[in-house]
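dumping this here before i forget
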Amino acid sequence: MAYEVKDYSKLIGMQGFSDALLKNHFTLYQGYVTNTNKVLETLEIMLKDGKTGTPEYAELKRRLGWEWNGARLHEYYFENLGGNGVFPKGSKLETLINESFGSFENWLKDFKTTGTMRGIGWVILYQDIISKKLINFWINEHDTGHPSGCNPLLVMDVFEHAFMIDYGLKRADYIEAFFKNINWSEVEKRTK
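structure:
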C-alpha cells in the first residue's frame, strides 16, 4: 500500500507565511512521499527477486530513512501549524514543560535558541516515552540523530526551504512567525 500525500492547503493564507513559500514547501513534501513509495516498491521487488545481498539493496535501505523521515517530519510540522499560537495554560503539556524545564519561559528560550543555531535541520520537542520527560533536540538530517524511545511533540523545520523565500537569512523572524501559528491542541494530542 502506497504512502499517501496529505493535503495541507488549509495552511494557505497563514499569517507570516507567503503562499509561494507554503506551496513550494508542500511540493518538497510531496517529493518525499513520492520517493518513499519508489524506494519501498523497489525494495519489495528486490526482496522477491532475491537481490537483498546487493550493494543497491543496501543503499536503498539506507535511503529509505531519509525519504520516510522527510515525509513524516513534514507531516508533523504542517500538522502542528494552523493554530492561533496561544499556549494552553493549565494543560497537560504545560505541566510536562514545567516539570522538565522549570517554566514555559525556560522551555521557550531553549527551543528558540536551538532553532537559531547555525546549520540546517529540525528542532523537535520530544517526550521520552519511559520517563515522560520533555527534551528539545536539534536534528541535523532527517535520518539521523533522533532519540530512541521518544515521541515528537512539536516539530519545527529549520532547513532553508522553510523560511528563505519570506525571511532570507532572518531565521529568528521565521521562528516568531512559526510560534504565532502553532496549533497547540495538535501538540497536546501527541503527549503520552
